[in-house]
């Protein structure tokens, strides 16, 4: 978020906390992207704040609440309500002091993801399909106005790669289920009670290999019953999607243009093998 929007988002979070009787005089920004993650103090509650026009907070809360009830390794909600304040939506979560003494072992990561997937098989909610996300990236690549710096050759390559990989993953015949959508290390908190997943707004349906594509390579090697050819294709389609997003004229990812160039080169190398 830009500075002005971020300040209004912080005030929305503090106001929401006060309305619930929580003592919140200050907010520490933990993460700033399309939404803000804030540590409210001294009540020590985590607030997630997003523009009301571009969010799926109720869906995220519904998924997280069901997963927590199923015993899945997910962060707990402070309250199951979604609050609207000054064109923002605010959700409140338990704050966990991070464990930073060591990196999470791949076996622990794989075990947490396997338990998450087991819990997700018990959740029945209308959910987008993973191919919807590929289609969004494909639409972005085709839109010259939204991706003006993408050369014609790169545009053709990205579009063809997304189309080919979508067919390959869709035709794999692997079982599909509810997925996290982006279970990368940034969405897995190492806490004193074990690793916990956060950020469920990207949940979708698809094969577990699509989730594993976002995790470190070692995790895919330890997760049981993986189709490694499919995982290779999922890693490539994930790289193609995030590459497309870096060429969006409105992308605010730090150093995004450089990454877009770098990832295009990586994608060409990955798809040439």
From TrEMBL:
<dbReference type="InterPro" id="IPR002575">
    <property type="entry name" value="Aminoglycoside_PTrfase"/>
</dbReference>
<dbReference type="InterPro" id="IPR011009">
    <property type="entry name" value="Kinase-like_dom_sf"/>
</dbReference>
<dbReference type="Pfam" id="PF01636">
    <property type="entry name" value="APH"/>
</dbReference>
<protein>
    <submittedName>
        <fullName>Aminoglycoside phosphotransferase</fullName>
    </submittedName>
</protein>
<feature type="domain" description="Aminoglycoside phosphotransferase">
    <location>
        <begin position="45"/>
        <end position="215"/>
    </location>
</feature>
